[in-house]
Amino acid sequence: MRIILLGPPGCGKGTQGDLVEKRFGYPKVSTGDILRRAVADRTPLGIRAETLMNKGFLVNDEIVIGLVGERISRPDCREGYVLDGFPRNIFQAQGLEEMDPGRREIVIEIKVDEAALINRLESRRVCSGCGAVYNLKFYRPAQDGVCEACGGVFSRREDDRAEVIAERLRVYKEQTEKLVDYYLKKGVYHGVGGEGTVEDVFGRIAALLNDGAGKAGENRARP
Ligand code: AP5
What we know:
Largest sheet: 5 strands, parallel
Helix content: 40-55%
Shape: globular
Bound molecules: BIS(adenosine)-5'-pentaphosphate
Structural class: alpha/beta
Distance between the termini: 24 Å
Oligomer: single chain
């Protein structure tokens, strides 16, 4: 099974991907996380990607397809995986199909309106120790500014500045939103409302997955 979480910046792909991994056992493969790790490690790829990411632009397709190909070829992905942030355009979607052909697939778009996205992104904070994601408005830790998992301190993603958020939303509309039609035509698209609590949203996603993505194509209307 290949589960593709689709949706604009801040809709909750990473948050929901973690929950899907925990409940259903498919590892989450996040291109954003892989790239941020490369940036933090100061690898040659990370150094090149950093400027693009900090401006809200996409990283080169071949690079990202290569990273995903390497990750999903590992043994833990044999039964399936959850993709968060990939594919981002039709070229990447086709690259994925070529790398891992014939795998059963479900695409879940998490729909959130733009004002709520901006609100979530501006108040997101990330633990600089373990990468856990919090939100100053919606998901605060018990002790302000301190990660509940590892005690690390919070930082703000460089690309969560207002002007970069605007650019990321523009890039999403221009390039990634086209995937909705692409996957609708493939008969694997499902849309869920991304408003409400994290648990509310996960309930909708889990219902789809429990219902058997085997029925892919039945719940195709965009909410
Ligand atoms: P990436 O990291 O993938 O960023 P994104 O797609 O913009 O998504 P985000 O990580 O910002 O948001 P999310 O949807 O995961 O939301 P989250 O769960 O964190 O990519 C970053 C960059 O890397 C790109 O701009 C690009 O440069 C590069 N890149 C990555 N993939 C690429 C690719 N395939 N090709 C080329 N370049 C690529 O939640 C957001 C906040 O909201 C959190 O604070 C969370 O706690 C909160 N929250 C979550 N759910 C709820 C809820 N239900 N209610 C209230 N708050 C909530």
